[in-house]
C-alpha cells in the first residue's frame, strides 16, 4: 500500500483557496458593510454584531475533515487517536472473526466436507474483520466486522 502524506487532507483545498483569495473575501465583506451603512445609519451596529470583522485568515474556521473512529471503514482513515490524541493515518490489522467462521461453515456444508475449502476464508483478507490501529501507540480506534450477508 502506498504511503500517503499526512499533511494533505480533503479540507486542504479549501484552505489553500481561502489563502489565495483572502483579499477578495475581505473586500467583499467591506463593500457589504459600506453599502449597508450608506442605506441606513441605524443598522451599522447590528451588522458588525451579525457579520464579524475578519482581520486574519486564521480566524476563519474550517469544517474538520477527520472522522471520529474507524468503525465501518474498510480503508485506512485519518483521525485523532482516542488514546494519544495525535492526528494519525490508521494502520489496518485484519483478524478472523464471526463472519469468517460463518463463511467457513457454509463452505464446509456446500463442499460435502472437503476441509481445505472450508479453511479458505481464514486466509483471505477480504473475509476478515478490520481493526484500525494507531501506528504510534497501537491503540485500536475502531473496527469493521466482515459481513457475508449484507
TrEMBL record:
Residues 61-146 form the LITAF domain. The chain crosses the membrane at residues 101-124. It comes from the Eukaryota. The keyword Oxidoreductase does not apply. The keyword Membrane applies. Keywords: Membrane, Metal-binding, Transmembrane, Transmembrane helix, Zinc. GO terms for molecular function: zinc ion binding. Its main location: membrane. GO terms for cellular component: membrane. It is a peripheral membrane protein. It is found in: Membrane. Signal peptide: none annotated. Belongs to the CDIP1/LITAF family. This is LITAF domain-containing protein. It comes from Paramecium primaurelia.
Amino acid at each position: 500500500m502506498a504511503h500517503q502524506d499526512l499533511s494533505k487532507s480533503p479540507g486542504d483545498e479549501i484552505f489553500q483557496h481561502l489563502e489565495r483569495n483572502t483579499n477578495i473575501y475581505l473586500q467583499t465583506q467591506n463593500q457589504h458593510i459600506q453599502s449597508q451603512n450608506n442605506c441606513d445609519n441605524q443598522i451599522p451596529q447590528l451588522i458588525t454584531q451579525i457579520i464579524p470583522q475578519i482581520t486574519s485568515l486564521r480566524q476563519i474556521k474550517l469544517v474538520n475533515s477527520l472522522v471520529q473512529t474507524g468503525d465501518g471503514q474498510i480503508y485506512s482513515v485519518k483521525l485523532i487517536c482516542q488514546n494519544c490524541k495525535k492526528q494519525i493515518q490508521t494502520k489496518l490489522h485484519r483478524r478472523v472473526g464471526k463472519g469468517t467462521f460463518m463463511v467457513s461453515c457454509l463452505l464446509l456444508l456446500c463442499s460435502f466436507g472437503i476441509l481445505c475449502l472450508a479453511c479458505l476464508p481464514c486466509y483471505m483478507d477480504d473475509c476478515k474483520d478490520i481493526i484500525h490501529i494507531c501506528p504510534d501507540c497501537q491503540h485500536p480506534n475502531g473496527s469493521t466486522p466482515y459481513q457475508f450477508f449484507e
